[in-house]
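Hi R.,

Here's the chain you asked about this morning:
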Amino acid sequence: MPTELIDRIYECSVVPELWPTVLDDLARLTESRGGPLFSARKTLCWTASGTVRGVFDEYVNEGWFNRCSRRVCLMSQSQPSFFVEQDFWSEDQLDADPIYRDFFRPHGLGWSAGTGLKIPTGDNIVFSIERAFERGPIEAEHVERLNALRPHLARSALVSSRLGLQRARGATEALTDLGLPALLLDETGRVVEVNALMEALPERVRLGAHDRLVLADGKAQARLSEALSMITATAGGAGCTVPLRDAVGRATMVLHLMPVRRSAHDIFGSGYALLLITPVAADRAPSLELMRSLFDLTVSEARVASRLATGQSLETIAAEGDVAITTVRSQLRRVLEKTGCTRQAEVAALLASVALTPV
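And here is the predicted structure, written out as tokens:
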């Protein structure tokens, strides 16, 4: 995985004007022309690589955005993945679709790979990579490259979205503007700055001796410490997303740990990592949406996790998916690792507690 690109993805979190160059890099990675990033909560914010900026100016300003079926399809998907046109439409349907027939194709586009992110905070984010129509559809191997980067894109875009795709002016202002409990950690794990919203969190999240973050959930504490040490020890060390559970095992908050990279140090100074805390709201974070923004599961891992939560056995999951039981066990091991659980029953209880539904 290109570690320099991952660093620059995280740099974009608080320096959003750099997103166009990262979108250009994603396009080159997939032999495409460019791509946009859309973020909507109460208002629409967006940016795009320079190669397609003019096209998407028209897309937004002439009303094509509001009529586009592609965006609706992406946001309706429960699988944590990038999707291409063939996942939704036949060739005849594409030929007849006004967005493709009257807008994308006249502009020389018409093939894409896109993903939608529904964050429990209410932020809706869409990434897409646009390819020239004459080049043909984006191939599966390129989609897999994008999927490998998707967790990093999601975490960074969440911060950018909360900031309205505006450059953070400084550490204090940035933490305040995020509108969510947030703090900065140095490379030893010491908290160097927090925002006022941290004070409203329950005792399960508090500052302890020597300015250390203390979590009542011991497994979340261990995963967070391990992730911070990986950021410190590895040049391309990336972030992670950790569930914070209450006393009975329900996920009540999500901790997003992101490294401070490159020019982001101009804003966060001695800060080595940014920790953003989002609530898990039952009416906004159903089942797979939580897995998409929380556990970074693949499609196959999400399938196993969701069925465990409904009480299915590994044998039944294997039979329904027409895969070997050894494959399902391997997927279960990865689910256990990513959710911080040690037993099958524990992961089933955790996922069921946030109302998972089958894939």
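One quick note: The radius of gyration is 20 Å.

Cheers,
M.
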